[in-house]
């Protein structure tokens, strides 16, 4: 009974809350890092060095007036933010934060579920997330959000192909679809897949930037052309849901990149005994550190690179990334068969 | 018991949403009910222990094909019903004919299923399948027992793809 219901529910509670706190602090990290990149200080007023800024932001967004335009499609308008937030959160069901820990005489696994089709689950849940954006643009009944949502969904669908193809080559190397098994395969082969599949990782990360609508692919919210993007008509907490979903998706991409390409919870060189002292840092902390590096790169890229033009974005996706991903997949398959 | 309750609940939702798909006046809403319907069908697959099929159902249907439907419906403004749509009885005869044909087809399939029950997956799996796990078993069956249908389906998809390219490209 306890193992069937109580433990998974507690895990879900912990993962959900930790994720949401991480998401809010991700906003602060972004503002701070961009400020430093531009020789500013960033938020400094709320708390020491502005560390309480996310809480102030959350309170502000919650007490703001929530407006539904009169001509909007009310049901869809209300559902759209929820539809974009939910997939970003339920992905964490299969992400392994570590192997087992013993706590109060019980053994817990540091993941909510280890399903046979874990990686496919992530891809399919992410593919449902695009509805939030399309519907937000449609339901607002306003031209800029509609244009932005068409752009966003075209972008998401295009880059999804390349990203999924890179995942297939990782599956070929790992021989499993389960996220836990993929990490274990990296432990057994003594090398992180990011080093066997550098091209796949590169395409995955670029595709991840595009799928989360981040700079340099943040065309769906190009202020200069589209006022505010697909969420122009949203205000208050509903706007906040879109905003948080973007950051939650960034954390998802970072976690998946960590798990698939950089050994998940494994410490560096798990087979080298001389580095055993690194074991004092627990497995979940290694996972956190690696994911943080990717999140930092997300922000770094935004602070550094200018935005692509729309035709450049499509050309990059269809004429560069997808062919490269296919070549990578074919070569991986040939090498795998040759080594067998 | 719990299995039966879950099955009938899911089936009720699936049928309910299917009815909503055809009765909702707004086309975009009807596409959304279709998505919900597909998600519940995926839940039904999970209940049957076919996780791979469930995930593929969401990935291909809910996340892929219906997004394209939604694009089409959004772009060809259907808010104001065209003239042809105003007469509800314009296709009654064809409708009844099609419904009767579908019913006969279903009856034949059901009768055939009762007369000659298909081997269950458990029977096929015991017949020397060297792999374990849902995905591996689907793959194994596709490349052994169902190789020819699988290849024909992939040829069909290739033909459709080439056709789409030829149609979309003005000069080749």
What does this structure look like?
The complex is a heterodimer of chains A (about 350) and B (about 170). Chain A is mainly α and about 350 residues long. Chain A has one domain. Chain A has 13 helices and two strands; from the N terminus they run H-H-H-E-E-H-H-H-H-H-H-H-H-H-H. The mean pLDDT of chain A is about 85. Chain B is an all-alpha fold and about 170 residues long. Chain B folds into three domains: about 80 residues, Four Helix Bundle (Hemerythrin (Met), subunit A), CATH 1.20.120; about 25 residues; about 45 residues. In chain B, helix 1 runs antiparallel to helix 2. Chain B is globular and about 60 Å long. Chains A and B meet through helix 4, helix 5 and helix 6 of A and helix 2 and helix 3 of B.
Which helices and strands appear, and what pairs or packs with what?
The complex is a heterodimer of chains A (about 350) and B (about 170).
Chain A: H1 2-37, H2 53-63, H3 74-90, E1 100-103, E2 106-109, H4 118-128, H5 130-139, H6 143-174, H7 179-188, H8 193-196, H9 198-211, H10 223-226, H11 236-261, H12 283-304, H13 310-339
Antiparallel strand pairs in A: 1-2
Helix pairs in contact in A: 1-2, 1-11, 1-12, 2-11, 3-5, 3-11, 5-6, 6-9, 6-13, 9-11, 9-13, 11-12
Chain B: H1 2-23, H2 27-47, H3 51-75, H4 83-86, H5 92-115, H6 121-126, H7 134-143, H8 147-168
The share of residues in extended strands of chain B comes to: under 5%
Number of strands of chain A: 2
Helix content of chain B: over 70%
How many helix segments of chain B? 8
**Rg on CA atoms of chain B, Å:** 20 Å
Total helices of chain A: the number is 13
Which sequence of SSEs, written as H and E, runs from N to C of chain A?
HHHEEHHHHHHHHHH
Return the domain count of chain B: 3
Uncertain spans of chain B: none
Largest sheet: spatial strand order of chain A? 1-2
Number of domains of chain A: 1
**What overall geometry of chain B do the principal axes of the alpha carbons give?**
globular
What is the helix/strand order of chain B? HHHHHHHH
What does the largest sheet of chain A look like?
2 strands, antiparallel
The name of the CATH superfamily of the largest domain in chain B reads: NADH-ubiquinone/plastoquinone oxidoreductase chain 6, subunit NuoJ
Specify the oligomeric state.
heterodimer
Name of the CATH first level of the largest domain in chain B: Mainly Alpha
Provide the helix percentage of chain A.
55-70%
Structural class of chain B: mainly alpha
**Mean pLDDT figure of chain A:** 86
């Amino acid at each position: 009974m306890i193992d069937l219901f109580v433990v998974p529910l507690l895990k879900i509670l912990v993962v959900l809350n930790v994720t949401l706190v991480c998401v809010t602090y991700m906003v602060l990290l972004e503002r701070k890092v961009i400020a430093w990149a531009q020789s500013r200080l960033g938020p400094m007023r709320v708390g020491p060095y502005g560390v309480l800024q996310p809480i102030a932001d959350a309170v502000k967004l919650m007490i703001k007036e929530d407006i539904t335009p009169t001509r909007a499609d009310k049901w869809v308008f209300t559902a759209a933010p929820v539809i974009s937030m939910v997939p970003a959160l339920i992905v964490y069901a299969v992400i392994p934060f570590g192997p087992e820990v013993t706590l109060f005489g019980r053994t817990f696994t540091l993941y909510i579920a280890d399903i046979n089709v874990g990686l496919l689950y992530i891809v399919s849940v992410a593919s449902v997330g695009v509805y939030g954006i399309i519907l937000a643009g449609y339901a607002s009944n306003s031209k800029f959000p509609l244009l932005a949502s068409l752009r966003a969904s075209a972008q998401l669908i295009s880059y999804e192909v390349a990203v999924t193809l890179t995942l297939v080559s990782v599956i070929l190397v790992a021989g499993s679809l389960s996220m836990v098994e993929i990490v274990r395969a990296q432990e057994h082969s003594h090398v992180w897949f990011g080093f066997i599949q550098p091209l796949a990782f590169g395409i995955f990360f670029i595709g991840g930037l595009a799928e989360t609508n981040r700079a340099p692919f943040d065309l769906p919210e190009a202020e200069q052309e589209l006022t505010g993007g697909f969420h122009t008509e949203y205000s208050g907490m509903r706007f906040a849901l879109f905003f948080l979903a973007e950051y939650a998706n960034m954390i998802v991409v970072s976690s998946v990149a960590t798990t698939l390409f950089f050994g998940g919870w494994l410490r560096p060189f798990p087979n080298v005994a001389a580095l055993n002292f690194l074991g004092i840092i627990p497995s979940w902390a290694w996972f956190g550190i690696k994911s943080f590096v990717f999140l930092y790169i997300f922000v770094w890229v935004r602070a550094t690179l200018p935005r692509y033009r729309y035709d450049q974005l499509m050309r990059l996706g269809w004429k560069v990334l997808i062919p490269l991903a296919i070549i990578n997949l074919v070569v991986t398959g040939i090498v795998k068969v040759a080594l067998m | 018991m719990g299995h039966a309750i879950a099955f009938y609940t899911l089936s009720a939702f699936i049928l309910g949403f299917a009815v909503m798909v055809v009765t909702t006046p707004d086309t975009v809403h009807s596409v959304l009910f279709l998505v919900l319907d597909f998600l519940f069908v995926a839940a039904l697959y999970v209940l049957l222990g076919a996780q791979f099929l469930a995930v593929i159902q969401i990935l291909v249907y809910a996340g892929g094909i219906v997004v394209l439907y939604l694009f089409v419906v959004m772009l060809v403004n259907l808010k104001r019903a065209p003239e042809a749509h105003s007469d509800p009885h314009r296709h009654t005869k064809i409708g009844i004919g099609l419904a009767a044909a579908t019913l006969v087809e279903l009856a034949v399939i059901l009768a055939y299923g009762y007369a000659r029950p298909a081997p269950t997956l458990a029977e096929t799996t015991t017949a020397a399948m060297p792999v374990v796990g849902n995905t591996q078993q689907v793959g194994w069956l596709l490349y052994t027992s169902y190789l020819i249908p699988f290849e024909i389906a992939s040829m069909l998809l290739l033909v459709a793809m080439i056709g789409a390219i030829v149609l979309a490209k003005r000069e080749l």
